[in-house]
Amino acid sequence: MLGLNKKDAGLLFFVAILLVFAPFLLNPFPESSSLAQFNAGYPDLMQRFAIFGIFAIGFNILFGLTGYLSFGHAAFLGAGSYASVWMLKLLTINVIPAIIISTLVAGVFALLIGIVSLRRSGIYFSILTLAFAQMAFALAASVLTPITGGETGLQTALNDPRILDGANETGNIPSPSLFGLETGATWQMPVGDWLFTFNAGYYMCAVMMLIAFYVSLRIFSSPFGLLLKAIKTNQNRLNYTGVSTRPYMLACFVISGMYAGLAGGLMVSMDPLAGAERMQWTASGEVVLMVILGGAGTLIGPVLGAGFIKYFENIFSKINKSVLEGWFSFMPEGLQDIFVTILYPFVGKGWHLTLGVLFMLVVIFLPGGLVEGGKRIGKLFGRRKSKDTETGETNPAPAE
């Protein structure tokens, strides 16, 4: 199927099902109504899940396959975002050219940085990528203000030329669209007592994420991917055999950067604004957390890690003291106050603390990330099933 083996095709199908039903299954705060609403709905959350999933998949191609840890991948995310906004301003409000250009610009940017950074490996490579990203952030925030908008950011405006769209006679700043359909458009479909809400932007991001995941599957199983795994295992041995690893590493770095640029372009397609904060080291650190949390080097791990962080970031940041008091309202007042006092620092503005604790627990007990946890659960059920089978064979039912 599509050049994939049975296992990879199963993973692709699983991700497709996850993307289709995630908006309905993962809506943490359903809207109150006479109908039970499945809101796809929670568009900002779901779009971030798909976009950062692409970002994490691309980073995993570099870190998971080669072991090279980049602390500067946010530079490509920011470069793609700026290129995308400029396409929306100069060319057309249609997001397709913007997404293509953002991916290509990020690839060129990654090529320039990779040529220098890949002269070193290990921690020195990581520091070089971090230095380049921070320089890019400084340039975007202050030096290149006419191009980037400085600290206020770059966004579309009413008087933008948009040469392919012609004159704007609406009197309003046009919203990004996909062949006339606004990416922020939603439509509802009542089914019995349920009300399903669909968001066009999310499903566009979901399709792009599915394509990105398919490409990563092909890369992992290709001879190119196998050589990247050999680089991770023992790069010196490859060099001794006469294989020059530099071109392969540079190609991997550029591909990974293009994934980040694609994610940046999709961000702008949902919200036509690009700021220098997307190039900060914290954004690079976040994608590292996603990949390690999900399972570095695994195929599905980055998707799970991105979804885990973005989903729980949204949940824990929305919980306030009144919500906690409602949860523990069945307790005596004194005991309720104790539980609320203990848990309150971990929610709301303190959600980062909860994420840190969860990340620590995963690293300590599941070094292989969430994927390892899934495998352990699968083995546990497999053992129970085998035990039940053995019990049935050794203790047959008495004959009538």
What does this structure look like?
With 400 residues, the chain is mainly α. The protein has a domain at 34-167 and 174-280. Helix content is 66%, strand content 6%. The chain contains 15 helices and seven strands. The chain has helices at residues 6-25, 43-66, 74-90, 95-117, 122-143, 145-148, 200-221, 223-240, 246-270, 281-294, 301-318, 321-327, 333-343, 351-365, 369-394, and strands at residues 36-40, 154-155, 177-178, 181-182, 186-191, 194-199, 273-274. The strands form three sheets. It has a three-stranded mixed β-sheet. The radius of gyration is 24 Å and the shape is globular. The chain starts with 5 loop residues before the first helix and ends in a 6-residue tail after the last helix. 39% of the residues are buried. Residues 31-41 have low confidence and may be disordered.
Give keywords:
400 residues; 66% helix; globular
Q: Layout of helices and strands, plus pairs?
A:
Blueprint (H helix, E strand, L loop, with lengths): L5 H20 L10 E5 L2 H24 L7 H17 L4 H23 L4 H22 L1 H4 L5 E2 L21 E2 L2 E2 L3 E6 L2 E6 H22 L1 H18 L5 H25 L2 E2 L6 H14 L6 H18 L2 H7 L5 H11 L7 H15 L3 H26 L6
Helix pairs in contact: 1-7, 2-7, 2-9, 2-10, 2-11, 3-4, 3-9, 4-5, 4-9, 7-8, 10-11, 11-14
